[in-house]
Amino acid sequence: xxxxxxxxxxxxxxxxxxxxxxxxxxxxxxxxxxxxxxxxxxxxxxxxxxxxxxxxxxxxxxxxxxxxxxxxxxxxxxxxxxxxxxxxxxxxxxxxxxxxxxxxxxxxxxxxxxxxxxxxxxxxxxxxxxxxxxxxxxxxxxxxxxxxxxxxxxxxxxxxxxxxxxxxxxxxxxxxxxxxxxxxxxxxxxxxxxxxxxxxxxxxxxxxxxxxxxxxxxxxxxxxxxxxxxxxxxxxxxxxxxxxxxxxxxxxxxxxxxxxxxxxxxxxxxxxxxxxxxxxxxxxxxxxxxxxxxxxxxxxxxxxxxxxxxxxxxxxxxxxxxxxxxxxxxxxxxxxxxxxxxxxxxxxxxxxxxxxxxxxxxxxxxxxxxx
Length: 371
Fold this sequence. Notes:
Layout: E1 2-4, E2 10-12, E3 18-27, H1 34-45, H2 55-81, H3 88-106, E4 112-119, H4 124-133, E5 136-143, H5 153-164, E6 172-175, H6 183-200, E7 205-211, H7 216-219, H8 224-239, E8 246-251, H9 264-273, E9 278-282, H10 291-294, H11 296-307, E10 312-316, H12 323-336, H13 349-370
Parallel strand pairs: 3-4, 3-5, 5-6, 7-8, 7-9, 9-10
Antiparallel strand pairs: 1-2
Helix pairs in contact: 1-2, 3-12, 6-8, 6-12, 6-13, 9-11
């Protein structure tokens, strides 16, 4: 029996519930144009977790100054990285979603796998309602931020809670808080960097650049700074680097407040002035290349380093669609789905058992490689 609820959903009694995996990325403008960028920035910078300034003070500045001056400049930067397929972040995130769906299917899991953007499209409310219409009653949310921060991961929870406030029948909900130190993620990062070094040689210095947040967030108890440093330490160990062969820095400072230091641009300029000629930069806080990596690091940071006297600058791409990273996502999902029945039934039972054995072997191999 089907019935329409006041929230617009249609529930069919007696139909088996489903499990869904929801990947959530930050978001991107729909086009590299001022109007689209203004719309995106208005939503992003209006979030009180992103800009922790009292609303009465911040909103007049946002709408009176920032959204009048910044969109055109940002649109030009987006245009410099835009592809024929669209936004690099959106394209890569969709491919990751498709690949993860395939990985899980090969392992015998019969689940929905969807992608939503925290800001922009496809929006979280829209995707959540689509999953509801597919009778999803167990939902695993995986924010694509390796390190937890109130300004990223927590905003995903906020948006989900607001949407669920109007639902009658809520799904069982699990949220992956972070995966900054997951062995499979560290292995994927190390493999990506190691393969590049095997082809082209090692630099004099590896710079690990993470997205910055205001310094006050650390004093208020946000664990982001600590989780970034743990990711960096584990990656350095996986690569066999000594403490003086890498440095951790923070990028994308916004406004006049003090942010986490050292700043990436200043770090690169200082390295060049000290005679370090060859540097590689990797961004372990991003799982898909985007404006902050392709423009800010690969273009702006490169120019700053070379102008300060550096000789060779290489940007090492994010995990993107690397098989090791998709495998890491699959392992992470399997761990957090523990206890949920997701295996195919009847004719697929034998295949499911084989996939489970293969997944266990793959997990053991990855764990050993990351140690």
